[in-house]
Amino acid sequence: MQTGTLISLALYFVLMLAIGLYAWRKSTDSSEGYLLGDRSLHPAVAALSAGASDMSGWLLLGLPGALYAAGLVEAWIGIGLFVGALANWIIVAPRLREQTEKLGNALTIPEFLANRFPDKALALRLTSAVIIVVFFAVYTAAGLVGGGKLFESSFAGLFGDTGMSDYMLGIWITAGVVLAYTMIGGFLAVSLTDFVQGCIMVVALVLMPLVVLMDDDGAGAVTATLNAIDPSFLSLTAGLSFVGFLSAVAWGLGYFGQPHIIVRFMAVRSVADVPKARNIGMSWMGVALLGAIGVGIAGRAYVEQNGIILDDPETIFILLANTLFHPLITGFLLAALLAAIMSTISSQLLVSSSSLTEDFYRLFLRKQASERETVNSGRVFVALVAVAAIIIARDPDSQVLGLVSNAWAGFGAAFGPLILLSLTWKRMTGAGAVVGLVTGAVVVIAWIALGWNAEFMGGPGVYEIIPGFLAALGAIVGVSLKGWKQINASPK
């Protein structure tokens, strides 16, 4: 059985590497080519690349696992994300595509912010780069945890005595393939592989719930089984407090500040292509989220009906893939999981590398670095960030959704208000940008450290993105208005 599965996965890996080689021949001669694909992405590629890099392993592991354990009430996370993604495409995408090219042809988010607020350029580039690298190391680790869980659950003992656990072997294999095509082909390789991976993911997420429903004699049998477990399992509101509702839908706020997603807006072919990309991307996302919800709900019914013991809810997708399908199809489904994981990891590694290259290496160490040297230094930084993520991911008890939620909140709070206001509010100042950036990141880190995301004032925890986002928004507005008053009050 495992042989057929491994054949499918091997073919998938070969396809990813082939795309990397193609991109290497097309767009790695310059910094703009390696880091932004020469701003020439087709709307469909930009849309699915944004979606696939967003919907990491949590889409096939974390979200179905949460629904499996707690019921349909966890779907509010998906609803909040859908609304947030739509707002991101409408508000941020066209403005960011236009302004990044107009303001010095910025290749990274920190560079755009520096060009937008030249009086605080150095502080913004340094602070932004530090936040990006720190939170992306955690975010990338979440993806590697997913890869480790996949190999631990599906191929236990298959590779013999390698001197490391199946979990760590899975991490190294996942990281190795991603590093290969990302270092070779840069942004174009990441975007093209994202497109292919997005297609694989959505097919798998539609296929699996349908097969479970057919195996369980239809939706009626699934509903009856779940109602027998808990009559409120299929309720969107049972046990949902106001704080819990806000914490779930607040995930949508994070979209405005995710560098690995919004960088796709910078690379789309033209502003005129943005609406077409938005429609493609949102259609893909809606189908993918519904499929993930179906996996969690139908998977719980299947496990209960067949008396299966599942220790880790986040592996329900892997269990169903291994149980219900022919090995070759299982390999395709596991490739979909790897696609979700690898599409996000590659995007995060490249954005981290971009910041380290453009906002540190060229800014302080080698201002006159050639294009070839810049591209090669980017490849080195990709590898260094990957090593840091591997170290963080070593704990096999790590929860994918937990790690993702922390990193998502960090980016959403630090960059979300900053990006929104820098694109839409002319009175925003450089000082406000710096203070808001630091405030958002610090509040999120402090909230997590104090445990207030788990329990707050004797009640349920409040998702850290809410206080972080509001604090950053208030800091930007307050400091910017104070700066404008001082300017207007000064002698002319």
TrEMBL record:
Membrane-crossing residue ranges in chain numbering: 6-24, 75-93, 122-147, 167-188, 195-213, 233-256, 284-303, 315-341, 376-394, 400-421, 433-453, 465-484
Catalyzed reactions per annotation: L-proline(in) + Na(+)(in) = L-proline(out) + Na(+)(out)
Keywords on record: Amino-acid transport, Cell inner membrane, Cell membrane, Ion transport, Membrane, Sodium, Sodium transport, Symport, Transmembrane, Transmembrane helix, Transport
CC per GO annotation: plasma membrane
One GO BP: proline transport
Single GO term (MF): proline:sodium symporter activity
Family classification: Belongs to the sodium:solute symporter (SSF) (TC 2.A.21) family.
Task of the protein: Catalyzes the sodium-dependent uptake of extracellular L-proline.
Name of the featured protein: Sodium/proline symporter
Species, as recorded: Parasphingorhabdus halotolerans
Gene: putP
